[in-house]
Write a structure and sequence with these properties.
alpha+beta; 3 domains; 9 helices
Length: about 270
């Protein structure tokens, strides 16, 4: 990458023809680092491609040849880092049974060497659109890792949160997470053409579910059930002491016990009065 903005997470740089003409010195010491690619685009089509190996092979003559290629009109220069990087994109939404789910997808993302020319489509995305980008003349457009992650976060929210989660029961996520993971992967795969059209390749490495409100509810239910069992056992003892059958029902026994307790309390108050 050519240091322009000072950011260290720049993945893509697109230099316009006007910028090249006005800033020739920027390209006097240009180099191509490990995993990077440099492409000269003439009249909207790739003309010459340089990798680190080809630059080293050309030796000292590379810069002279490169500057010669930039002569003329309607030239652009594209630089990109092709090395894959890890992105962790959050999952948050509600399942088919309205249970809150939180988690994350661990993705491997890279600039697609096969679709690099389509990287310009990234600049049409709403998340990257900016007033200064509406007119590309005389400017350098940069895309950072943060930009890519924001795009992925926006797209996966539509595909995973809105489609997969809303069609899945929370109990299925708990009991059949491998099936849920496969659904997430299928959702990501469905976005492959969209991202390829922007020059990106994305793969799912792992899906982590950090919160399943269903499990929280089940734990609460279990706790309440145990508490109810203790209460039922206490009322069964009370029913026996009151000479009542449990067939009357827990609620009746409870009310009857409370009624007789009040009666006994009344007698006690009268005696003490």
């Amino acid at each position: 990458m050519i240091p322009i903005s000072g950011r260290t997470d720049v993945l893509i740089q697109w230099f316009s023809d006007e910028f090249i003409k006005k800033n020739e010195k920027v390209f006097e010491k240009i180099t191509v680092g490990p995993g990077e690619v440099l492409i000269i685009i003439k009249d909207g089509k790739p003309s010459d491609t340089y990798l680190e190996s080809s630059v080293k092979l050309a030796g000292d003559g590379f810069l002279a040849k490169f500057r010669e290629k930039l002569k003329g009109v309607n030239n652009q220069v594209l630089m990109a880092d092709l090395r894959p990087f890890a992105a962790r994109i959050g999952i948050h939404g509600y399942t088919k049974d309205r249970t809150e789910i939180e988690g994350a997808m661990n993705l491997t993302v890279r600039v697609s060497k096969e679709n690099m020319v389509r990287l310009s489509s990234l600049y049409t995305r709403d998340l990257l659109s900016d007033e200064k980008w509406k007119d590309m003349r005389g400017k350098v457009k940069e895309v950072t890792r943060e930009d890519i992650e924001n795009i992925l976060r926006y797209d996966t929210e539509l595909t995973v949160d809105s489609s997969v989660l809303t069609q899945t029961l929370s109990s299925d996520i708990r009991d059949h997470q491998d099936v849920f993971n496969a659904r997430v992967r299928n959702a990501i795969d469905s976005m492959t053409p969209v991202w390829a059209n922007c020059g990106l390749a994305v793969d799912v490495v792992k899906v982590d579910i950090e919160k399943n409100a269903y499990e929280d509810a089940m734990r609460y239910h279990d706790e309440q059930s145990k508490a109810q069992m203790i209460m039922d056992a206490d009322f069964e003892t009370a029913a026996h002491e009151l000479g009542l059958e449990m067939d009357y029902g827990i609620l009746f026994v409870r009310k009857e016990a409370e009624k007789r307790l009040e009666e006994e309390k009344g007698k006690y108050d009268v005696q003490n009065f």
